[in-house]
Amino acid sequence: MGIIIAFGKGDNLIAGYNTASKEEKEKVNIKRLRLATVTMLLLSSIFVAFLPFASQMLQYVMIAVLVFLAGIFIIIANTWCKKK
Asked: How is the chain split into domains, by residue range?
């Protein structure tokens, strides 16, 4: 999914953007939103790929880091990705 979004073919797969009105979509810098979304998708896929190979304690740490990164992504999507 990250690759599809990175090439600009999957903008309707981005949650919130697909249901936004035309006026709301004009307020968003789609290139920045794509970059942030692709980064979060790739980071989360890497974390999920390594979870089975980690010890139980490390799994908890990885999940906590992933939740933290999701929060950071939400903040970035609502600030950095808006047109000024």
From this structure: 2-79
Q: Are 35 and 3 in contact (CB under 8 A)?
A: no
Q: How many angstroms separate the Cα of 71 from the Cα of each of 2, 18, 21?
A: 18, 20, 24
- Rounded to the nearest 10 degrees, the angle between the axes of helix 30-50 and helix 56-79 is 180
* Rounded Cα distance, 52 and 30, in Å: 34
Place of tokens 């990164």: 69
pLDDT tens-place string over residues 16-73:
898 999 999 999 999 999 999 999 999 999 999 999 999 999 999 999 999 999 999 9
* Cβ contact 33:81 at 8 Å: yes
